[in-house]
Amino acid sequence: MSLPDPIRRLIEELQRLPGIGPKGAQRLAFHFLKTPREEVDRLSDALRDMKALVTYCSVCNNITAMDPCAFCSSEDRDPHVICVVEEPQNVNAVERTREFKGMYHVLMGAISPLQGIGPDELKIKSLLARIGNSTNGKAVTEVILATNPNVEGEATAIYLARLLKPLGVRVTRIGMGVPVGSDLEYADEVTMHKAMEGRREV
C-alpha cells in the first residue's frame, strides 16, 4: 500500500526516536491519524513549548525552565555537597529518595572510548571550577560520584576521583550491590563483589 506523503514523513520522523522501529512508528502514525485534532494539537504544543522553554542550568547542567535551576537557586540546599550524575534524568532518581539535600552536577554522559566520548566531551571542567570557586564560606567539602554501575560509569568515577582528591574534597561513591527485593542466586559476581565491598555494620 502506498502511503500519503504526510504519513510517510511522520513515520520516518518517529523512527528517529529511541526505541521506535518501523512497525512502532507506523502504529503511532495511524494512532495520531485516528486521534481527535485537539489531542494532536496538545501534543505538538507540548513538544514546541519544551524546545522553546526548557534549557540547561548554567551552573549544574540540569534541565530547567529558569536559569539557574531550582536546586542551584534554593537556599535550602546544602552547597557543601555535590552529587555528580551522568544525565539530567538521574537527578530525578536521586530526588525520589528524599534523602539528598545537596547540589547536583550533570556530566551529560560518561567516558566511553568505544563511542568516542572522552573527558573533554563531558562537563568536567565546570565541575572543577565549582569546587575551586569556594566563595562566601560555601566551599565544597564532599563530592558524591553517582555515575551508573557499568563499565563507562566506573571509568568516569575513577577518572573524577583522581582529579578531585588532590583538591582536598572528600570523594565518595554511591553504594552498589544486590537490589532490595531480589534473590542472591540471581546476582552476578560483580554485583556480589560490590555488595560485599560496600557492607556496613548493623
Folded structure, characterized:
By secondary structure, the protein is an alpha/beta fold. The protein has two domains: 5-53, RecR Domain 1 (Helicase, Ruva Protein, domain 3), CATH 1.10.8.420; 76-180, Dna Topoisomerase Vi A Subunit, Chain: A, domain 2 (3-Layer(aba) Sandwich). Helix content is 42%, strand content 12%. The chain is built from eight helices and six strands, in the order αααββαβαβαβαβα. The chain has helices at residues 5-15, 22-34, 37-53, 70-73, 88-95, 124-132, 151-164, 189-197, and strands spanning 55-56, 63-64, 78-85, 102-106, 142-145, 170-173. It has a four-stranded parallel beta sheet with strand order 4-3-5-6. A two-stranded antiparallel sheet has the order 1-2. Strand 3 (78-85), helix 5 (88-95) and strand 4 form a beta-alpha-beta unit. Helix 1 (5-15) packs across helix 2 (22-34). The longest helix is centred in the N-terminal third of the chain and has 17 residues, at 37-53. It is globular and about 65 Å long.
